[in-house]
Structures are given as structure tokens and as C-alpha cells.
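Form P-L/3: holo structure prediction, ligand iron/sulfur cluster.
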Amino acid sequence: MTADASQTYHLLRKKLHDVLPDFEIRAKAELACRINQLKGDLGAVILGHNYMEPGLYHSVPDYTGDSLELSRLAATTDGDPIVFCGVRFMAETAKILSPHKTVLIPSLEAGCSLAASITAEDVRELRERFPGVPVVTYVNTYADIKAESDVCCTSSNALAVIESFKTDTVIFLPDEYLARNVARESGKHIIFPTDRPIPGDKQDPHMDYQILGWHGKCEVHEKFNVEDIENVRRQFPDVVVLAHPECSPEVVEASDFSGSTSAMIRFVEQARSPRYLLLTECSMADNVAAENPDKEMLRLCSVRCPHMNQITLQDTLDSLLQNRYVVDVPEQIRLKAKRAVDRMLEIH
Ligand code: SF4
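OUTPUT (holo model):
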């Protein structure tokens, strides 16, 4: 092991000794050291989403966080290429905001069940069926879906974005549970037109609803249920339960706090309780545990996102060595998608 790799190993070990076995920390430190050297030589910037595995998350990213905050940060740096250790829709968002930089994603397999739940054609059809109704799209979507939307939103600002419209009704895509959670929070009625086709092509003026949703789901967050929470509470009565708003409304209601990944991280940092249950992707709980060694993180760790799991240190190294895989967004789509993102930023 070189002196640099040994230094990386000691830094990683200090953070991750309770999370990863020593042999794994050693192997990852060697890879991370090569990546960091190459990153410096190339002038690259590496972004690490909160769901990256702990060995990667704590070693190579220049920035860690939510997908949108990472893309916005990358646009303010000189780093080029941008290597996005996250899934494809996130890398597309980085490209939307940094059109003149090369954006790389370490694996082509890093998709997303939620982003894949809807097509641009689906959005156009909804617009035809509900003319004049504004379309709000969660940022966890591909660029062509954003391009068909009036405005984007995040899990933190979804309600503020919906309420910024002065219309009675909005189309909210594609996450069913986020939409249901926003509807619950705001007292709005929600229907799913794919389930209940309305006769004819036009909106039924007699139907009482304010949000038109879609049946997209995050395959990680949909797995949690109220029974999970009750079981953990029985065993650990003092546990504080945090749920991502992509979980079902029943799960969110049974939790003590609901917020985006960054909001959950901030909550744990600032709270005083000794024990937490994070209902989100399980690597994030590992990463939060490593940053908060005085607090205990309980997790239901059968729940690893198979898409996030595709991004490894080896792939990140190969990405830099071979300038792969380049993420492009056609300019016409990029401009329209950027307009939807910019509108969101004006509101929030
Ligand atoms: S955690 Fe869910 S929303 Fe995030 S990439 Fe995986 S499937 Fe998509």
C-alpha cells in the first residue's frame, strides 16, 4: 500500500470501522486513492448521492447530498468532467445545468423504477385529456419528462410548488406516494386518471379533485410498512422514526418525521435522541451512522436500491480512465427541462 493509500485507509477506517469489515476498507482505500489522484490530474469533480455505499461516499466525492443540490453545486465549480455517482436521471439534471461540461455516469445500469414509470408520451396524453391543467413533475424523472412539464419540484418543496398555481387542479407526476402525502398534508383530493378513465377526452367538471396523480413508485420506499415501524417501536420504545415522503402515507403518518434525504440527515444531526430508524435506502443509514457515532441507527437493511448499487468505486475509476459513460441531453429537450427546473427555483 502506498503512503497515500495508507492515509486514505486510516481516514476510512476511523469513520467506517463499525460499518464495513477491515479487508473491505483496505481494498476500497486503494481504489479511492487512485480515483482521487486521477480526479486531480483531470480536473474532474465527483458528486456522491446520499445513497452511495459507505466506502465510496466517504472517500471520493467532492460533494455529497441530494440530486438537485449536487447538480446545482457542480454547475458552480470549474470541475470538468463531472462524474455523477448516482442514477441516470440525476446525471441528466447535472447536464441540464452544466451543458458545456462533460457529465459521466459510472454505470449504464443505474436506472430508477420511479423515473421509468412514465414516458413523455404519457405526459402529452394527460395534457390532452386535461387541457389547461398545469403539470408539476418530481425531479426524479428523465429529462424528456421534465421538458414536458410546467415546473419541477423536490420532495421538500412539492406542496409549495403545487400551491403556487392559482388553478383548482394540478397534474402531479409520477410518484403516487409523494402525491398522496402532499394531498394529505394540504387537504386536497387526489385521483389517478389511469385507474379511473374519464369518459370522453375532456376533464369531467363534476368530479371533485384537485390533484391528478400517477402510479409511479420508488421500489425501495414502497417496501416499508406500518408493521415494520410497530415492530421496531415495540422493541425500542425510544426510537425516533424518520420516513422519506416516497413512503406510503400510512408509513409517513406512523413516523415521527418525514423529509428529503438531506432533511433527514439534518434532523439526526440536530436531534438529541440516542436511537433512530431511517426508512429510506439502507446505505444512507450507514452513511449517517458513520457521521454520528454517538447515535444508533436502526435500519431495515434488506432495502438496498438495485440501481444505486450499480455504482462502485471500480466503475468510478473506469469512468475517469476511459471517459465513460457520457450523459447527453438533446439541446431542445435540455432547454425546456431547464425552464421547468428554473421555475421551481423561482418559487422556492
Ligand atoms: S431509491 Fe428509488 S427513487 Fe432512488 S434511484 Fe432507487 S428506485 Fe429510484
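COMMENT: The chain has three domains: 3-109+308-322, 115-217, 221-298.
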